[in-house]
Amino acid sequence: MAEESRIEEVGLPVLGQKAPDFEAVTTQGILRLSDYEGTWLVLFSHPADFTPVCTTEFIAFSNIYEELKKRNVELLGLSVDSVSSHIAWTRNIEEKMGVKIPFPVIADLNKEVTRKYGMIHPEQSKTETVRCVFVIDPESKIRAIIYYPLTTGRNMKEILRLIDALQTTDKHKVATPANWNPGDPVVIPPPATAEQAEQRLKEGYECKDWYLCMKKL
Amino acid sequence: MQRLVPLHEETVITMPCVSPDGKPTSSGIALLKSLKNGASSPNEIASNTGQPLFRVRSGLRELKNAGFVEEEEEGKYWLSKKGQILVR
């Protein structure tokens, strides 16, 4: 593959940037990214309909849908398949596995959204999207990105934890440490000056040292 | 590049609020009814009907393109004459 087309296939978005706009055909009609302004959005891709790992993921995403809605988060799936294929597959999941798929799924046959979000990684597959997750905030900014290979199903607990962490950061202006879960202590942003560093140890936080201070919310 | 599913399978684009013959579906009628009492914003309609905001926005866009609603500059929608006839 020529270097130019390789770059076009893997044009990766960047954290903090406005998410690339799109208008796409989905299983719930024609949707635009701007239709989600004011809510959080998890835009995720799967390699293909009627495949085993993707089926387990769709069931798992459906299982956390209510939890996501409690957090003002919507789900939007995507693959390079047709709407008819998406409908047939989601109907099959409901019929055979008893799980209704409540969220829309983009039929990105012309790969317009796929290209904008760098969802095809040619070393994985030249035709199928890898397992991407884009967490987009209510102002349409990309806040987190996860890429998983075709062989590895995603962890829904981690996606919920990630959203909880981002929303906690926004609400309380704090950071979250490794393996953080809601209710755990959060990290105070480190001091920016020597004077603030001196002061930090006197502010009543639980500190290991001036640069690592935690508090309970 | 070989496609998994040929393009020609994409025969009808799904329009949840307006059917291919140009008439509003039950979802479309429900949205039109939510405007019976005057102009509303997508946020107000979503709040009053419990529908997700993205569905309300895309549905209003369909209804506007089909001439059933009109949009003010402030982003509020109201019933057009064609829309009023349907939910009278």
Structure description:
The complex is a heterodimer of chains A (217) and B (88). Chain A is α+β, with helices and mostly antiparallel strands and 217 residues long. Chain A folds into two domains: 3-154, Glutaredoxin (3-Layer(aba) Sandwich); 173-215, Antioxidant, Horf6, Chain A, domain2 (Antioxidant, Horf6, Chain A, domain 2), CATH 3.30.1020. Chain A contains seven helices and ten strands. Chain A has helices at residues 3-9, 52-63, 65-70, 83-97, 112-116, 156-172, 194-200; strands at residues 23-26, 29-32, 40-45, 73-79, 105-107, 131-136, 142-148, 186-187, 206-209, 212-215. In chain A, β4, α4 and β5 (105-107) form a beta-alpha-beta unit. Chain B has 88 residues and is mostly helical. Chain B has one domain (23-86): Winged helix-like DNA-binding domain superfamily/Winged helix DNA-binding domain (Arc Repressor Mutant, subunit A), CATH 1.10.10. Chain B is built from four helices and two strands; from the N terminus they run αααββα. Chain B has helices spanning 26-33, 42-49, 53-65, 81-86; strands at 69-71, 77-79. Chain B has a two-stranded antiparallel sheet. The termini of chain B are far apart. The model of chain B is unreliable at 1-14 (pLDDT under 50).
